UniProtKB/TrEMBL annotation:
UniProt xrefs under InterPro entries: CheY-like_superfamily, OmpR/PhoB-type_DNA-bd, Sig_transdc_resp-reg_C-effctor, WH-like_DNA-bd_sf
Official protein name in the record: Response regulator transcription factor
Record-annotated OmpR/PhoB-type domain positions: 127-228
Gene3D superfamilies: 3.40.50.2300, Winged helix-like DNA-binding domain superfamily/Winged helix DNA-binding domain
Annotated GO MF terms: DNA binding
GO BP of this protein: phosphorelay signal transduction system; regulation of DNA-templated transcription
DNA-binding region: 127-228
SMART domains named in the record: Trans_reg_C (SM00862)
Keywords in alphabetical order: DNA-binding
Length: 245
């Protein structure tokens, strides 16, 4: 069961260091408080943290922020979503709800209200059976697969190469030939049963570790499809700043 002390909160600001200036004790109510800005945030940042709740600041016309809100809600529909905007921006608050926000708060944020909203979302998340999203991450340096809940599982070399090929393929759909070539073998002389065995082991491994069906589907006479969103992490980005918790 998810407790407030286990919550991971991602704060996305328009200007770094400004939004939570009125909430100095917020870190006491979450286990992980991570910051980024609208300009710097990427899907990889969100997928690696696997936040339970996202707090997004709207500023000005907020076109970029609302586009970000819509994209995040599409990829992580089960995540608690809080927007923060100026008191006079009623239209933005209404647009925020239309883009999937659970709550729209006015700035400056009142800490006791924000904590109450976080607690309310935590209660909803405790009852949530489906995963918050279906975004997976291949960590190329550590040769691991990141799950939608933030955990990582180790991959064999062949398992990593299969997932890498699926991630790079159009629509995450790879033919048997491209998968074999991704494994570094000659497709014309390759026994496809070996590929089937690799994929079968990988699917069982993911299902056992994740406690859910693996997002890899066989396509008859074609190849394989990764049904979730599969991202590649190259360890090249600067880590978003973290708050103390």
């Amino acid at each position: 069961m998810l407790e407030s002390s286990q919550l991971r909160l991602l704060v996305v600001e328009s200007v770094a260091g400004r939004l939570l200036s009125s909430c100095p004790r917020l870190h006491e109510h979450v286990s992980c408080l991570q910051f980024s800005t609208v300009e710097k945030l990427s899907e990889i940042d969100v997928a690696l943290l696997a936040p339970h709740i996202v707090l997004l600041e709207l500023d000005g016309q907020a076109g970029v922020e609302l586009d970000l809100a819509a994209r995040m809600h599409r990829l992580w529909p089960g995540v608690g979503f809080i927007l923060a905007c100026e008191p006079e921006q009623m239209n933005l608050r209404l647009q925020g709800y239309a883009h999937g926000a659970d709550y729209c708060l006015v700035k400056p944020l009142v800490e006791v209200e924000l904590v109450s909203v976080i607690d309310a979302l935590a209660r909803r998340l405790r009852m949530q059976v489906a995963p918050a999203g279906d975004c997976w991450v291949i960590d190329s340096q550590r040769q691991m697969l990141g799950l939608p809940d933030g955990r990582f599982m180790e991959l064999s070399r062949n398992e990593y190469l299969v997932l890498q090929c699926l991630q790079r393929a159009p629509d995450q759909t790879a033919s048997r030939q491209s998968l074999a070539e991704g494994l570094g073998v000659n497709y014309m002389t390759y026994d496809e049963r070996r590929l089937e065995a690799i994929v079968s082991r990988l699917r069982r491994k993911i299902a056992t570790f994740a406690g859910r069906e693996a997002p890899i589907r066989a396509l008859r006479n074609k190849g394989y499809l990764f049904t979730g969103s599969l991202l590649a992490y190259q360890h090249e980005r600067t880590e978003p700043r973290r708050g103390s918790a």
